[in-house]
Structure prediction request, 74 residues.
Amino acid sequence: MPKYLNNFLVCALCLLSTFSAQSQCAMCRAVLESQESTAAAEGINNGIVYLMLFPYLLVGGVGYVVYKMRQNKA
Prediction:
């Protein structure tokens, strides 16, 4: 099997095997636990995860561009 295909499969497996995570800081958690509604806590968690997505997309995009530039050069 070619090396690049093996690397691609390992990366794809790592990206697809994610687990659900709770993403609150200690202060946010304390404030939201004092409220009776869990909808606000779920909304905060979803917003934090949503905001974490964009740095990974940017780094992945830059990595892809660098990879393609190096492939065209070779």
In short: Residues 22-73 form one domain. DSSP finds three helices and no strands in the chain. Residues 62 and 72 are 15 Å apart (CA to CA). Helices lie at 3-16, 26-33, 39-73.
